[in-house]
Write a structure and sequence with these properties.
By secondary structure, the chain is of the alpha/beta class. The protein has helices spanning about 15-25, 70, 105-110, 115-140, 145-155, 165-170, 175-180, 185-195, 210, 215-220, 230-240, 285-290, 300-305, 340-345, 355-365, 410-425, 445-450, 505-515; strands at about 5-10, 30, 45-50, 50-55, 80-85, 90, 95-100, 220-225, 245-250, 255-260, 260-270, 275-280, 315-320, 345-350, 375, 390-400, 435-445, 490.
Length: about 525
């Protein structure tokens, strides 16, 4: 590898998005990745022969609110999305079920089977809070300066007129908001469990915005790249390579080189050094990035970022190769010949908010949740490339699971036992899954740290609490995507707007870097 205009540390999807815009603008980019494949946590691999497992994020929702796929012409590089509808499916122990479709009226018809009052309340909730949700999308696609945040969230044309009236709801917990809005605990749980995906429990103060995002699911829907989640990052890599970009996999960076206060290159664990003529961009965890700068920068600028709270993890995943799809029918006999609508959806196991709150109590006590809330995903029902003929994949995400256990036990010792418990919980709703397993991959919080670089197993990098969002992510002095040394830029889930497959942090970082390089907005598709 020769020298570059811009070197990227880490090849997660935000790094690749940023690199894509820089490469499109004509800069020679080099991407260093410690793992043998690019993509970070957005990777799909054949872990069990014949079965394609995602290693990180699976459902593509947030990126559909951005222009990234269009800006970078990713469909020309092999990215093909499959629309999933229904979006969510929630079965309950007595056989009742709720489907959330992209179409709001169809969703209300499903909710009416549980509560006619809540069907009306749901339509009102989605339509009344949609402007607020749209404002959040707008704020995510900008550098989180005080001006931008206020402009997006306070003076948005459809928000500011009744903001004062809505402020108490916005500043409350999502548990309280949903209990005040809906009568049925089951309707509350469907929205609340999706809100919990960023980590905060239903009781956390000022967490209501996680539920207020819900109207946007009816706008963007849920999608899947054909061939697996990693097809997004593979398309990004091909796009970057087509513009002259270079990748070095199995190449771990152990130092970002700083000279006279400016980042000028990187050194790898093999002792090789590479120079960056214009900038270095780190897509690694902010704490990992600061370690790569150790001893080369003053402590003042980085001090607040060092205090950014990682937390104690919060979830884990088990990937299953299975012989059949989950059967949620109350009779125990499949109601589908090929697959049912529930298998296209994200399948929620969370009967009420109290259930989720009990799972969080276990977590705060430092123990795996006895009764975890779950999301089951069976994408092979719509994408037959993921499993052999007649077979399927089943991905099972659960909360809450602490990285550090109060008992002092090791996740390497208890991981299989906890995975068994997660499958047993799903089997209470779909009994056939217990005997359908062909093989599995258990991704404990420690596995997520060890393999994917997610410190303490936090898939969001840093906790998604209000004091670590917008201008405070990862700190007030670095929330503008500029690092603690000149010429160093930051992206990834440690930055605004946080975790999830969105790419906004990569796009925003690219906008800042191109601005600093006097390229202006013309290369951003604006």
């Amino acid at each position: 590898m020769a020298d570059f205009d811009v070197i990227f540390v880490g090849a997660g999807h935000n790094s690749l998005v940023c690199a894509g815009y820089l490469a499109k603008a004509g800069f020679r980019v080099g991407v260093m990745e410690r793992r043998p494949v690019v993509g970070g946590a957005v990777v799909t691999q054949e872990v069990i022969p014949g079965y394609q497992f995602d290693l990180g994020g699976s459902a593509h929702i947030l990126i559909n609110h951005t222009p990234i796929v269009r800006d970078l012409s990713l469909e020309e590089f092999g990215l093909s999305y499959i629309d999933l509808d229904p979006l969510f499916f929630a079965p309950f122990p007595d056989g009742e079920r709720i489907y959330v479709w992209k179409d709001i009226e169809r969703t209300c018809e499903s909710i009416a089977g549980v509560s006619t009052e809540d069907a009306e309340s749901y339509f009102k909730f989605v339509t009344e809070w949609r402007p607020m949700a749209e404002a959040m999308v707008e704020s995510f696609m900008q550098v989180p300066t005080p001006f931008n945040v206020v402009k997006s969230l306070v003076f948005h044309s459809k928000v500011h007129k009744d903001l004062l009236r809505r402020l108490p709801a916005i500043l409350s917990s999502y548990g309280r908001l949903l209990r005040k809005t809906f009568v049925s605990p089951r309707v509350q749980a469907v929205i609340g469990w999706m809100a919990a995906q960023s980590g905060p429990p239903p009781t956390e103060r000022i967490s209501a915005p996680f539920a207020l995002w819900h109207p946007m699911y009816h706008h963007s829907g849920v999608k899947r790249p054909r061939g697996g989640s990693g097809m997004l990052t593979q398309a990004l890599a091909r796009m970057i390579a087509s513009h002259g970009g270079t990748f070095a996999t199995s190449t771990a960076v152990d130092q970002i080189i700083v000279e006279s206060g400016r980042a000028v290159g990187v050194r790898t664990v093999d002792g090789e050094s590479y120079s960056a003529k214009r900038a270095v961009v780190s897509g690694a965890h902010i704490h990992t990035t600061l370690q790569l700068l150790e001893g080369q920068i003053g402590s003042t600028r980085a001090a607040s970022a060092r205090r950014a709270k990682v937390g104690n993890g919060f979830g884990m995943m088990v990937r299953f190769a299975v012989s059949e799809l989950p059967d949620y029918s109350s009779t125990g006999q499949a109601e589908f010949e090929d697959h049912g609508p529930e298998h296209r959806a994200l399948q929620f196991i969370c009967p009420d908010l109290e259930y989720l709150e009990r799972a969080y109590v276990d977590f705060t006590a430092g123990r795996p949740s006895t009764d975890p809330a779950l999301i089951a995903m069976t994408f092979s029902a719509v994408d037959r490339t993921l499993a052999p003929p007649g077979k399927h994949v089943l991905f099972l995400w659960g909360q809450y699971f602490p990285y550090e256990l109060a008992t002092g036990e090791s996740w390497d010792d208890i991981g299989d036992r906890v995975a068994d418990r997660m499958l047993a919980k799903l089997a209470e709703y779909a009994p056939n899954v217990a005997s359908s397993v062909v093989g599995r991959l258990v991704q404990t919080p420690v596995w997520l740290e060890r393999e994917l670089g997610m410190l303490r197993g936090n898939v969001m990098h840093l906790e998604m609490s209000v004091n670590q969002m917008f201008m405070l992510r990862p700190s007030l002095r670095m929330s503008n995507y500029r690092g603690p040394a000149k010429g160093l830029y930051l992206t990834g889930a440690s930055m605004h707007p946080g975790g999830g497959i969105m790419g906004a942090a990569g796009r925003n970082a690219a906008a800042v870097l191109l601005h600093d390089l006097d390229c202006g907005p013309r290369f951003m598709g604006w």
